[in-house]
Amino acid sequence: MSLDVTLQTDPESFGADATDEARRQVEICNACRYCEGYCSVFPAITRQKVFASGDITQLANLCHNCRGCYYACQYTEPHEFALNLPRALAEVRTESWDRLAWPGGLSETFQKSGVALAGALVAGFALMFFAISALPSGGEGFYAHLGHTAMVAIFAPAFLLPLAAMGVSLTRYWREVGGTRVTWADLREAGASAGRLRNLSGGQGQGCNFEEGDRYTDRRRQMHQLVLYGFLLCFASTSSGTIMHYVFGMEAPYAWYALPKLLGVPGGVMLTVGALGLAWLRTKADPELGAPDVKGGQMGFVLLLAFVGLSGLVLYAATGTAAVPLLLALHLGSVLALFLLIPYSKMAHGFYRFAALVREAQIARAAS
């Protein structure tokens, strides 16, 4: 197949700017269209001929880095076009998270450095050890070591303030990609795509090429689903406990058959298994098909998720033993670090990707 189109095809002609390089590659893909039936990125590419910077940001966050397009492409190296669209979009994507983050500067640090993530985790441990030793306690179970009021005073702002910062970042993103008023139809379409992780199968349901090169596998999709639904179950467990405490006056500790336990234990298992599975798949994947500069930070974040899930399960298993204060500090410290890093770590990708799916739903509906 030949590409009968006049384009600037020399990668060096665009310098080192990630957006310009991604634009060069997207324009070649738009002329070729061999991958038109792949993930949502390619139908989005074919709707236009000229791509503004905001369009490239949208395409980059719509990409799930399944890598199928790379292995199907006839214009990868050693061809003179030297296409590597998964890497080009990954670099724009991570750059956009840093540029749009509020306040600025923190995202680049925690995206790129696993050491910085480890430092945040250690700081979380230290704060929780201090809290358990210095703040008032009272009650049964975990509250015998750290009182309910103290927990709320620490974790309410640690959760709500990062969410507010994430809201500022998403507002900037929405403005940059030209988003319009969101409807229930947009949210329903985006939610269906995100819930099935449809794009992690390349849009064709046959799996992705993330860790097996030119062979298809659904393992990455399955591990992502375990993490996603495990995290949601853990969040639902905490939410149900909050409602039981404040609405019905039912205070912890709860029996094994109570809703917080029935949601939290399987959620913790799914989160741990899924995160460890993703970490293992990352060791098998080609780093040159992603953004190599953020490899350490992304691996650190996945391991942080695994630690949150595993430490929660171990803490539950140790209920009533002398190990509870130590395990409580480790688990709460990891949760604290995870919450505070929401806008500045790989955790942000879930928010941006859902926003990209909502915007894609808007554009597709307008074009139909």
Instruction: Report, as a whole number of angstroms, the end-to-end distance.
Output: 30 Å
Percent of residues in beta strands?
under 5%
Average pLDDT number: 90
Oligomer: single chain
Largest sheet: none
Helix and strand content put the structural class at mainly alpha
Count of the separate structural domains = 2
Count of discrete alpha- or pi-helical segments spanning 4 or more residues: 14
**If you compute it from the alpha carbons, what radius of gyration comes out, rounded to the nearest whole angstrom?**
22 Å
Question: Which runs of at least 5 residues are low in confidence (pLDDT < 50)?
Answer: 1-16
Number of strands: 0
Name the helicity range: 55-70%
General shape = elongated
Order of helices and strands: HHHHHHHHHHHHHH
Short description:
With 368 residues, the chain is an all-alpha fold. It contains 14 helices and no strands.
Could you walk me through the main structural features you see in this protein, from its secondary elements to its overall organization?
It comes from Roseivivax isoporae LMG 25204. This is 4Fe-4S ferredoxin. Keywords: Membrane, Transmembrane, Transmembrane helix. The chain crosses the membrane at residues 115-136, 142-165, 226-248, 254-281, 301-318, 324-344. The chain has 368 residues and is mainly alpha-helical. The chain has 2 domains: 11-98, no CATH class; 102-367, no CATH class. 64% of the residues lie in helices and 0% in strands. The protein has 14 helices and no strands. The chain has helices spanning 18-32, 41-45, 53-62, 68-72, 85-100, 106-112, 114-134, 148-176, 184-196, 219-246, 259-284, 295-317, 324-340, 348-367. Helix 5 packs across helix 6 (106-112), helix 6 (106-112) crosses helix 7 (114-134) and helix 7 packs parallel to helix 12 (295-317). The longest helix is centred in the middle third of the chain and has 29 residues, at 148-176. It is elongated and about 65 Å long. It starts with 17 loop residues before the first helix and ends with a helix. Mean pLDDT is 90; it is low at 1-16.
